User: Fold this.
Amino acid sequence: MNGLAPALDRAGRPLFADVAGDIEVSFEFFPPRTEKMEQTLWESVKTLEPLAPRFVSVTYGAGGSTRERTHATVERIARETSLQAAAHLTCVEATREEIDDVARSYWAAGIRHVVALRGDPPEQGASFRPHPEGYANAVALVNGLKAIAPFEISVAAYPECHPESRNKAADLDNLWRKIDAGADRAITQFFFSPECFFRFRDQAAAMGIEAEIVPGILPVSNVAQTRKFAGQCGAAIPDWMDRLFEGLDNLPAARQLVAATVAAELCGQLYAGGVRHFHFYTLNRAELSYAICHLLGLRPKTNIQEQAA
Ligand SMILES: Cc1cc2nc3c(=O)[nH]c(=O)nc-3n(C[C@H](O)[C@H](O)[C@H](O)COP(=O)(O)OP(=O)(O)OC[C@H]3O[C@@H](n4cnc5c(N)ncnc54)[C@H](O)[C@@H]3O)c2cc1C
Assistant:
C-alpha cells in the first residue's frame, strides 16, 4: 500500500477532504455567574473572534434570572469586540411592558438581533404558564419585538419535536407562525442524527418555510450532563454515545478529542447535505468549537488577511 489511506465517511469519501471552509458559524454563550467564569467566557470570546462568526448570542436564564447579566454580557461583547452580539429573550414571568423595556434598552444600546423564545419555567418539570399580562409564547414575542423596532430575529426549532407539542405537524405549524410573524431564521435544538435534521428541514420546506434553519451543534464531552439537558428538551442521545465515552471519565484530554471527532463528523455529514451555517453551543469553552470549525476548513480571518498582505 502506498502511504496512509484516509479515513472515509459513510458515503466512501475521505472524511473532511471535501469541506472547503465555505461555511458560516455562530456561537452561543451563557452569562457568567462569577468572576472566574467571566474570565473563562471572555477568553473563549477572544479565541473564537478571529473566526469571524456571523453573530454570537447570549442566553437568558430561566425566569429571567439572568436579565442583568445577559444584558451586561451582550453589551460588553458589542462594545469590546468586532462581533455582532445577539441577546436571547424569553416570555417567562414578566409582563409585556417589562419585556418591551428590555427590548427597547437593547435597541438603544445598538443591539439589533434578538433570539426570541417562550422559555421554560424556573422550576424544572413544571408546565409553562404565561404571565397574565405577558406574552403567551414565542409567536407573540416576535410580534411584540417587531412592533418595537426592526430587530433581526432568530427563533427556536426542534428536529425531534418540542416535548410539549401535540405532534410534529403542530410543532412545524408553530415554527411556520414564528417565521410568518417576522423571524428571520430558526436555530435548532441540538441533535445527533443528521438524518433527523434533514427530515425536519425537508418537512419545513414542504410547509413553505423558506427561512434558513441553522443546526444547533452541541459538542459533547460529558455524556451524563448532556443526558440531563436532553431529557429536558426531548433530544435523543444515541446508545453509541455512551459506548464511545466509556472508560474516559478520568481522561479529560482524550474525552475532548473524542468529542471533537464526533461533532465534526456530524457537521461533515450536514455539510455534505448542503448545510453552510452551524450554530455552536459552546458552554463558554472555545476549544471544542474552535477545533470543529478548523476541521470544517474555517481559518482565522485575520491570519488570512495578514498572509495576503
Ligand atoms: C436555539 C435555542 C436557544 C434557546 N435559548 C434559551 C434561553 O436563552 N433561555 C431559555 O430559558 N430557554 C432557551 N431555549 C429553550 C426554550 O425556551 C424552550 O425549548 C421552551 O420550552 C420553548 O421555547 P420556544 O421559543 O420554542 O416556544 P414556542 O415556540 O412558543 O413553543 C413552545 C411549545 O408550545 C407549543 N405552542 C406554542 N404556541 C402554541 C399555541 N398557540 N397553541 C398550541 N401550542 C402552542 C409549541 O408547539 C411548542 O411545543 C432555547 C432553545 C433553543 C432551540
